[in-house]
Amino acid sequence: MTRLIKYAFLLSTALALAACNETFEDIAPKAERQLPARIVQTMKAKGMSKNSPVMMRIFKEEGKLEVWKARTNGRYDIIASYDICKWSGQLGPKFTEGDRQAPEGFYTVRPGQMNPKSSYYLAFNIGFPNAYDQANGRTGKHLMVHGACSSAGCYSMTDEQISEIYAFARDSFNGGQREFQVQAFPFRMTAENMARYRNDPNYDFWKMLKVGYDHFELTKIPPKVDVCGKRYVFNSEPVDGQSFSPTAACPPMSQPESLLTAYRQHQALYDIAFNKALKTQSTAKRSETIAGHEEARLVADWSKRRARGEKVSRLPPNIPSPTAVAAAPQPASTPAIAATASAYTAEPASRLQSALEAAAAQPEQQEPEQQEASDNPAPAVTEATVEGAVPNPTPRPDTSAERTASVPAPATGGQGTSLRRRFQNIFSR
């Protein structure tokens, strides 16, 4: 009997110790952690529900990732902004697998791209290459936003940050959102920033991205994104029963007249601010940018040789990007527009509200990555890295290669809603 009592005592002690050693991950899996109370309170104050739709914006040069959520009126408002720990490469898009570039463009994230069991804490694949990338022959895989700040990542966050970012996405999917948009930019696309990079090889690409950037700034709704003629097109519908094809020429398109009117006025003000900025940007500081396919191929070759153990330079090769700014001709402007130019640079979002409301009722017009298995990989998800990464100061670019979750890239497409009705409803609020 005494022996049985001793055995029972030892067993109960062992169980107690086992319970003490149980980790928080066993009790509350990291992918199910809830948003902090402070964020929930802010959402309520802004008229957002926990499960309302989200979208995200990334700005490389500023090192920021923003989370936006839909309010009850359908427009989006920013709910959180995070400092990016590291991002890969330089300013400019990703061209080829192995070039160490973090993508720029408009990407779509669906539930299957979420990786709750990532080796880098939590992660989601941003969907590179999208339809635009594929149409332009851009290659690569395993591009994601993930945690483990000390790792070499595309867009690498701290574990605490990615826990919140992941929760925003998870909650929106739980609320019925089928996909959310990630907009990745080289910098905030203001007149001053565009003027700084006027002669950069990537300037035409950035001008194209800026149209989608401007549409969101004007409407506070993620733009409908399509690809035709190897270009992005935003908030457009093909006419006469035609359709968009990423590689074929763009068909005739229409846009809501309210959006066209607002964008024309926005562009007139932007032109004035841009040309004003050109006169003061000759000595403005610029970040390193990738010089196009040629440099991307050099970096990819450097990555391959380094992975094979060959003796290579400590940093990838770089072709300097010409960024000298030249003055552009001044556009014609009216006194009324000129008088509001300074207000444009200070308040990019709110200055056109009266124009939007007035126009609302008008009719419509026409990289070789080395695979590394996750500790607990989710179905059809893998992760990758290139050894010997060279870290850069946080939170600026990380020249190491991508560590990402691999999923089939979704096509970039529209939401299938009536643009005319959509924008009339929004602009009338």
Topology record:
Layout: H1 2-20, H2 24-27, H3 37-45, E1 54-59, E2 64-70, E3 76-83, E4 86-88, E5 105-109, E6 114-115, E7 123-125, H4 131-135, E8 144-146, E9 155-156, H5 159-174, E10 180-185, H6 191-196, H7 203-219, E11 225-228, E12 231-234, E13 237-238, E14 253-254, H8 257-278, H9 293-307, H10 335-339, H11 341-346, H12 353-359, E15 370-372, E16 383-385, E17 397-398, H13 419-427
Parallel strand pairs: 1-10, 4-17, 8-9
Antiparallel strand pairs: 1-2, 2-3, 4-9, 5-10, 6-7, 7-8, 11-12, 13-14, 15-16
Helix pairs in contact: 7-8, 8-12
Can you tell me about this structure?
- Helices cover 33% and strands 15% of the residues.
- The protein has one domain.
- By secondary structure, it is of the alpha+beta class.
- It has helices spanning 2-20, 24-27, 37-45, 131-135, 159-174, 191-196, 203-219, 257-278, 293-307, 335-339, 341-346, 353-359, 419-427, and strands at 54-59, 64-70, 76-83, 86-88, 105-109, 114-115, 123-125, 144-146, 155-156, 180-185, 225-228, 231-234, 237-238, 253-254, 370-372, 383-385, 397-398.
- Residues 11-28, 324-394 and 399-416 have low confidence and may be disordered.
- The chain has a six-stranded mixed beta sheet, with helices on one face. Strands 3-2-1-10-5 form a five-stranded mixed beta sheet, sandwiched between helices.
- It starts with a helix and ends with a helix.
- According to DSSP, the number of beta strands is 17
Q: What is the distance, rounded to the nearest whole angstrom, between the alpha carbons of the first and last residues? A: 80 Å
What's the domain count? 1
Give the mean pLDDT: 78
Largest sheet report: 6 strands, mixed
Q: In percent, how helical is the residue content?
A: 25-40%
**H/E series:** HHHEEEEEEEHEEHEHHEEEEHHHHHEEEH
The outline comes out as globular
* Quaternary structure annotation: single chain
Return Rg in Å: 24 Å
Biggest sheet: strand arrangement:
6-7-8-9-4-17
Number of H- or I-type helical stretches: 13
Query: What amount of the residues lies in strands?
Result: 15-25%
Q: What structural category arises from helix and sheet content? A: alpha+beta
- Give the uncertain stretches in residue-range form: 11-28, 324-394, 399-416
